[in-house]
Write a structure and sequence with these properties.
By secondary structure, the protein is an alpha/beta fold. It is 24% helix and 27% strand. The protein has two domains: 2-130 and 285-315, Quinone Oxidoreductase, Chain A, domain 1; 133-259, NAD(P)-binding Rossmann-like Domain (Rossmann fold, 3-Layer(aba) Sandwich). The strands form three sheets. Strands 3, 4, 5, 6, 7, 14 and 15 form a seven-stranded mixed β-sheet that branches. It is globular, with a radius of gyration of 19 Å. The structure holds NADP nicotinamide-adenine-dinucleotide phosphate.
């Protein structure tokens, strides 16, 4: 089968398109004929040898490897035992995360429990855009932050993969006000997704136009100046970093603000809940761009240029 592989850590050019043996599913596993694979930041972090992760917690991945944990496709073969899936069923999933998967390929193995029925209303390209970003937003909003009715939620990096799902799930949870922070070209996209207020961070310092009014900040941007949005929060507010950042914990504590983030985990049952929201049109998927699997290197170059509006997807079949 064809796959996009990494033989040496480095830039997008390290992704090579080549033939490798088709994998064989073990007990509790499913072989999926991949129709589309989503591109996520950890895919290119892995390709670069996780050089943006502090050494103490840096994952070590032996070379060569096939990246990719988001897939949408059709069940091709079942491993021994009852997986609950049938050959021919359309599925999508975040495979084996946190951990390694090999989704940039014509066939990929997944634990049966990491898959869900593909939303009937979506094609494979759209479905492959959902798993990691959708589950991250879902797990932050529902499991960890337990957002309910009322309150102001600000999503920083609102147009990106995680952000565009987070603004919608916060609204579905019943937030009184959802504020989206992104660069100006995303305003219509985010307004169409139902945000109440849009702040273009390239034109105004967010913390100067939003002050003492945010109950929950979902920050998909992070970085060394993650703390700059602290003045936007009211006392009792919560900052939920989606990526590593410096949030000045002492200053936050003095302002009565707590800081706590989490890592997304594969979960087929939660993905099935997202599938229902997608099928009923309550949740929308944004697609930034689509590349053929053979051009995975170009897809990574696009990802690293940043400023995404929704997700990048690799077309593998069809
Ligand atoms: N905790 C977890 O388990 C988990 C799961 C998934 C992802 N992540 C991490 O979360 C981060 C976001 O992932 P993603 O997939 O959503 O990335 P993404 O699709 O690349 O989106 C990032 C978004 O941030 C915006 N942005 C960049 N600089 C900004 C700034 N200074 N202020 C506001 N917005 C800014 C970008 O567009 P504009 O600048 O044009 O607005 C872009 O839309 C990554 O670091 C990823 O590794 C963590």
């Amino acid at each position: 089968m064809w796959a996009a592989r990494v033989h040496a850590f480095g830039g997008p050019e390290q992704l090579t398109y080549e033939q490798v043996p088709r994998p064989v599913p073990g007990p509790g596993e499913v072989l999926v004929r991949v129709h589309a694979a989503g591109v996520n930041p950890p895919d290119w972090y892995a390709r670069r040898g996780f050089d943006n992760i502090p050494e103490a917690i840096r994952p070590v991945w032996p070379l060569p490897f096939t990246p990719g944990s988001d897939i949408s496709g059709v069940v091709a073969e079942l491993g021994p035992g009852d997986s609950g899936w049938q050959v021919g069923g359309e599925v999508f999933g975040l495979v084996n995360f946190p951990g390694r998967a090999a989704g940039y390929a014509e066939y990929a193995i997944s634990p049966a429990a990491h898959l869900a029925r593909k939303p009937a209303a979506l094609g494979h390209l759209e479905a492959a855009a959902v798993p990691m970003a959708g589950l991250t937003a879902y797990q932050f909003v529902v499991d960890h932050l337990r957002l309910g009715v009322g309150g102001t939620v600000l999503v920083n990096g609102a147009a990106g993969g995680v952000g565009h799902f987070a603004v919608q799930l916060a609204r579905i949870a019943g937030a009184a006000q959802v504020i989206a922070v992104a660069s100006g070209r995303h305003e219509d996209f985010l307004t169409d997704l139902g945000v109440d207020r849009f702040v273009d961070y390239t034109r105004a310092a967010v913390e100067e136009v939003v002050r003492d009014e945010v109950d929950v900040l979902i920050d998909t941007v992070g970085g060394p100046d993650g703390h700059r949005l602290l003045p936007a929060l009211r006392r009792g507010g919560r900052i939920a970093p989606v990526f590593l950042g410096d949030y000045h914990p002492e200053r936050a504590a003095a302002a009565g603000v707590t800081v706590g983030g989490w890592q997304v985990r594969s979960d087929g049952n939660q993905l099935a809940e997202l599938a229902d929201l997608l099928d009923t049109g309550r949740l929308q998927v944004g697609i930034d761009s689509v590349f053929p699997l053979s051009e995975a290197a170009r897809a990574h170059a696009r990802a690293e240029r940043g400023h995404l509006q929704g997700k990048i997807v690799l077309q593998v079949a069809g």
